[in-house]
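Consider the tokenized backbone below.
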């Protein structure tokens, strides 16, 4: 495959096994729900340098309980270092796990777009552009969204309402976007 293309994860495929360290020093595997829930929303964000990421993460917190009610666990991760995450926490009011230290290879395995910093003041490492995955109880990607910039992300109210609808067994809603 030419370097002009990136490989994206498709709906209906197994989510890759990617382990991250979370604030507090523990580790977890992305896509493996915790807290007795059977689905997981995995949000990949750019890092502490991105004010839109800060806003989005804080908005996600307001949906955490509603997601849990429909069986969806929540985790977010970035390529930031532990020190960068600690600094970022001063602007975040979250109680869901935040992973740090995603490597460029892990970002590639997730299919994210990867950017270089515009300056050393922005950050000191290549970073993933926003991506969001909803992994179902079989470890399969149910919903996926990629962006190549910080300005395009799923609107959270619509997303949570949609997940509630998908999770309702009466709707018998399949994974969409299976043709490649």
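A designed sequence for it:
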């Amino acid at each position: 495959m030419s370097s002009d293309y990136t490989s994206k994860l498709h709906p209906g495929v197994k989510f890759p096994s990617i382990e991250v360290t979370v604030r507090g020093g523990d580790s977890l595997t992305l896509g493996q729900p915790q807290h007795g829930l059977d689905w997981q929303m995995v949000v990949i964000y750019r890092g502490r340098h991105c004010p839109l990421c800060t806003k989005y993460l804080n908005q996600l917190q307001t949906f955490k309980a509603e997601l849990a009610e429909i069986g969806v666990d929540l985790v977010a991760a970035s390529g930031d270092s532990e020190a960068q995450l600690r600094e970022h926490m001063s602007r975040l009011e979250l109680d869901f796990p935040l992973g740090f230290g995603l490597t460029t290879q892990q970002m590639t395995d997730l299919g994210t777009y990867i950017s270089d910093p515009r300056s050393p003041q922005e950050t000191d490492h290549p970073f993933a552009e926003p991506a969001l995955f909803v992994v179902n109880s079989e470890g399969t990607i149910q919903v996926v969204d990629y962006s190549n910039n910080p300005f395009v992300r799923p609107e959270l109210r619509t997303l949570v309402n949609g997940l509630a609808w998908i999770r309702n067994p009466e709707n018998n809603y399949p994974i969409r976007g299976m043709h490649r």
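The domain at 18-166 is CATH 3.40.30.10 (Glutaredoxin).
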